[in-house]
Amino acid sequence: MSKKLGFCWYLVFILIIVAAGMYLWGYIKVKQMEKTVKEKEIVMVERAQLMVNENAQNLLKATALPLVWAVRKEMMRGNFEQINEYMERLVQEKGFKTILLVDASLKILLSTDKSMQGHRFADYYPVEILQVNDISISVDSFNIRVIAPVMGLDSRLGTLVIEYQLENISL
Q1: Could you tell me if residue 20 is inside a domain?
Q2: How far, in Å, are 60, 105, 113, 114, 161 from residue 84 at the CA level?
Q3: How many structural domains is the chain composed of?
Q4: Which of 39, 69, 87, 129 counts the highest number of beta carbons within 10 A?
Q5: What tens digit of pLDDT does each residue of 102-161 get?
């Protein structure tokens, strides 16, 4: 009887070890799966962020072209009030931060941020960004900046600068 009791205790001990091992194995597997899912979520969010940023850049480039045409037309007429109205209306849309119209002498003619109006462009931004001959887009971690030259018949009338705040995607 004592041998049977010893064997039972031995069997119970082994069953406890096996149960603990199975629990530990299951726990590790669940943690691995959680880690894998989290990594996949991060990758998906990064991909989505890239797609949103790329779409925003394409939209801004497509928006800048007709805006430049309208600004050119009004600049040639000397109708700066209408240009200001275009800019003020556009900056009310989600994501648009600031829109500037810089003349050939690098002075800010019009701005949706009225404190910048009349000042030198170099007081706020590097002048080098205006040295483009076609619509240009630059991106930093928070903003997209569109630089669009406004060309007259034989010379550059000015440059349109549009700042757009990137949409941040998070979990």
Answers
A1: no
A2: 18, 19, 11, 11, 13
A3: 1
A4: 87
A5: 998 999 999 999 999 999 999 999 999 888 889 999 988 889 999 999 998 888 999 999
